[in-house]
């Protein structure tokens, strides 16, 4: 079993890079089919979604635009249930199709706050694409349009996901060893 240490915590391999790439390709294929004839704006949630977004948009074959927002709701290994907007959106969304690109959705609170803001900016439609979804942690009722992989409610690092700023650069995804 391959393990890594991030700060003082041990993590074991959970999802390898090959499985991640396959999930990204499947999400891209669905988006390409569903949004054919449109020019969506991919709104990437930093920092965690940067690796997923990079791999995803390379597989998108329809015309698109890309922008970024920086949000935060985690401190250490726990959610704060409060969303902080660190860098805001500067795109005009009126009558646009927006695809929010997120690394992981667990409670769904961050995404719920983000969707409300986008609706106020008059986006025509808002879709959600996430690499990882934790259905057991999800507390909201909105649909998630594109899910790469469903996972249990474990704390994970790698492929853009971090623990106190470290571990994002790992090409595989690791889960914490309790």
Describe this entry's structure for a reader.
This protein is α/β, with parallel strands linked by helices. The protein has a single domain (19-153), classed as 3-Layer(aba) Sandwich (Rossmann fold), CATH 3.40.50.2020. 22% of the residues lie in helices and 38% in strands. It has 3 helices and 10 strands, in the order E-E-H-E-H-E-E-E-H-E-E-E-E. The strands form 2 sheets. It has a 6-stranded mixed beta sheet, with helices on both faces. A 4-stranded antiparallel beta sheet has the order 1-2-10-9. Helix 1 packs across helix 2. It is globular. The chain starts with a strand and ends with a strand.
- CATH fold-level label: Rossmann fold
What is the name of the CATH architecture? 3-Layer(aba) Sandwich
The largest pleated sheet is described as: 6 strands, mixed
| N- and C-termini, Cα separation | 15 Å
Helix content: 10-25%
Return the structural class.
Answer: alpha/beta
Domain module tally: 1
Q: Within the largest sheet, what's the order of strands?
A: 5-4-3-6-7-8
Please tell me what the overall shape is: globular
Instruction: Tell me what portion of residues adopts beta-strand conformation.
Output: 35-45%
The ordered string of helix (H) and strand (E) elements is EEHEHEEEHEEEE
CATH hierarchy class name: Alpha Beta
Q: What does the radius of gyration come to?
A: 16 Å
Number of helices: 3
The mean pLDDT is: 89
Number of strands: 10
User: Low-confidence spans: pLDDT under 50, at least 5 residues?
Assistant: none
